[in-house]
């Protein structure tokens, strides 16, 4: 009886969270931590933890599609994971290989037009894993409704270092002018896979760090970060919805801050000429893309007009 009441309560809370979510993130990146600890605490082998974690991965993919997320990146195997015991590495490689092939041939992947791609130093992986990567990518390369990135042999610092070296080499060989070293030029050299900016990083397992994960696309975009205690195999839809809510709260806070800055700037130029003021308003329109037309009165935020009337 008690377990049934608990289930009903969780479902009600899940529906409440879902109703409170408006515009979620476009790109979510997940650090799937806690598989080994989950297995140890249950008295199971490490392989069991990874196997149950793989089931959670399938669920998160469905949740993303249900909520309108357009891109999901999973931190499946880092460069640091090469330091793990050989037997554990081999099991991980077996699991990654089987899941890539399973995903590539799954009806749901093709029905939802999911494009699967690998990010990382793929050449460091065993041949069987590289073959599975090639199979998954070739089977889904024509899709663009949803992107599933699997980070394998991935390290953020190594990625940036490789891009920097490639850029310097191009400049040294005369193939790239120093003035043409732009954000786009660097991005083209990041593991040769285009990735949109990350809006939200989720990490399970209790650790509060992003572990060298997508520093260019996440930290550069100042992505929201959600840390939670459940191990990856325990990660639930409620946890995921809380993560989305964290992202939306951060976005709302940013919009409020941008409006406050706009108000301060308008006040600062209140004594300027009309031409100067209109030039400032023009710049504000560029800096405040989230402010709708109904929030501006003759180019000035509504809050400013009200404040002016009260003074």
UniProtKB/TrEMBL annotation:
<dbReference type="InterPro" id="IPR001441">
    <property type="entry name" value="UPP_synth-like"/>
</dbReference>
<dbReference type="GO" id="GO:0016094">
    <property type="term" value="P:polyprenol biosynthetic process"/>
</dbReference>
<protein>
    <recommendedName>
        <fullName>Tritrans,polycis-undecaprenyl-diphosphate synthase (geranylgeranyl-diphosphate specific)</fullName>
        <ecNumber>2.5.1.89</ecNumber>
    </recommendedName>
</protein>
<comment type="subunit">
    <text>Homodimer.</text>
</comment>
<keyword id="KW-0808">Transferase</keyword>
<feature type="binding site">
    <location>
        <position position="222"/>
    </location>
    <ligand>
        <name>Mg(2+)</name>
    </ligand>
</feature>
<feature type="binding site">
    <location>
        <begin position="209"/>
        <end position="211"/>
    </location>
    <ligand>
        <name>substrate</name>
    </ligand>
</feature>
<feature type="binding site">
    <location>
        <begin position="34"/>
        <end position="37"/>
    </location>
    <ligand>
        <name>substrate</name>
    </ligand>
</feature>
<feature type="binding site">
    <location>
        <position position="82"/>
    </location>
    <ligand>
        <name>substrate</name>
    </ligand>
</feature>
<feature type="binding site">
    <location>
        <position position="33"/>
    </location>
    <ligand>
        <name>Mg(2+)</name>
    </ligand>
</feature>
<feature type="binding site">
    <location>
        <begin position="78"/>
        <end position="80"/>
    </location>
    <ligand>
        <name>substrate</name>
    </ligand>
</feature>
<feature type="binding site">
    <location>
        <position position="84"/>
    </location>
    <ligand>
        <name>substrate</name>
    </ligand>
</feature>
<dbReference type="GO" id="GO:0045547">
    <property type="term" value="F:ditrans,polycis-polyprenyl diphosphate synthase [(2E,6E)-farnesyl diphosphate specific] activity"/>
</dbReference>
<feature type="binding site">
    <location>
        <position position="203"/>
    </location>
    <ligand>
        <name>substrate</name>
    </ligand>
</feature>
<feature type="active site" description="Proton acceptor">
    <location>
        <position position="81"/>
    </location>
</feature>
<dbReference type="InterPro" id="IPR018520">
    <property type="entry name" value="UPP_synth-like_CS"/>
</dbReference>
<keyword id="KW-0479">Metal-binding</keyword>
<comment type="similarity">
    <text>Belongs to the UPP synthase family.</text>
</comment>
<dbReference type="Pfam" id="PF01255">
    <property type="entry name" value="Prenyltransf"/>
</dbReference>
<dbReference type="GO" id="GO:0000287">
    <property type="term" value="F:magnesium ion binding"/>
</dbReference>
<feature type="active site">
    <location>
        <position position="33"/>
    </location>
</feature>
<dbReference type="InterPro" id="IPR036424">
    <property type="entry name" value="UPP_synth-like_sf"/>
</dbReference>
<keyword id="KW-0460">Magnesium</keyword>
<comment type="function">
    <text>Catalyzes the sequential condensation of isopentenyl diphosphate (IPP) with geranylgeranyl diphosphate (GGPP) to yield (2Z,6Z,10Z,14Z,18Z,22Z,26Z,30E,34E,38E)-undecaprenyl diphosphate (tritrans,heptacis-UPP). It is probably the precursor of glycosyl carrier lipids.</text>
</comment>
């Amino acid at each position: 009886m008690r377990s049934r009441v608990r289930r009903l309560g969780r479902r009600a809370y899940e529906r409440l969270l879902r109703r409170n979510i408006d515009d979620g993130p476009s790109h979510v990146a997940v650090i799937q931590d806690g598989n080994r600890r989950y297995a140890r605490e249950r008295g199971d082998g490490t392989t069991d933890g990874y196997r149950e974690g793989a089931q959670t991965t399938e669920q998160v993919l469905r949740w993303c599609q249900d909520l309108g997320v357009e891109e999901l990146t999973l931190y499946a195997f880092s460069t640091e994971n090469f330091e793990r015991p050989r037997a554990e590495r081999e099991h991980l490689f077996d699991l990654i290989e089987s899941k890539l092939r399973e995903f590539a041939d799954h009806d749901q992947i093709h029905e939802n037009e999911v494009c699967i791609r690998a990010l990382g130093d793929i050449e460091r992986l065993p041949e069987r894993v590289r073959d599975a990567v090639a199979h998954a990518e070739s089977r889904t390369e024509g899709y663009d409704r949803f992107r599933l990135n699997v980070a394998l042999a991935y390290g953020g610092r190594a990625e940036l270092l490789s891009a920097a070296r490639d850029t310097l080499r191009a400049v040294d060989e005369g193939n790239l002018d120093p003035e043409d070293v732009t954000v786009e030029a660097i991005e083209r050299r990041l593991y040769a896979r285009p990735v949109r900016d990350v809006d939200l990083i989720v990490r399970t397992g209790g650790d509060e760090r992003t572990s060298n994960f997508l520093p260019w696309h996440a930290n550069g975009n100042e992505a929201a970060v959600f840390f939670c205690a459940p191990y990856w195999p325990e990660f639930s839809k409620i946890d995921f919805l809380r993560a989305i809510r964290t992202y939306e709260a951060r976005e709302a806070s940013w919009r409020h801050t941008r409006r406050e800055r706009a108000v301060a700037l308008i006040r600062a130029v209140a004594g300027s000429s009309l031409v100067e003021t209109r030039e400032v308003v023009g710049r504000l329109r560029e800096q405040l893309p989230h402010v709708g037309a109904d929030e501006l009165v003759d180019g000035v935020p509504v809050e400013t007009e009200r404040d002016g009337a009260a003074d």
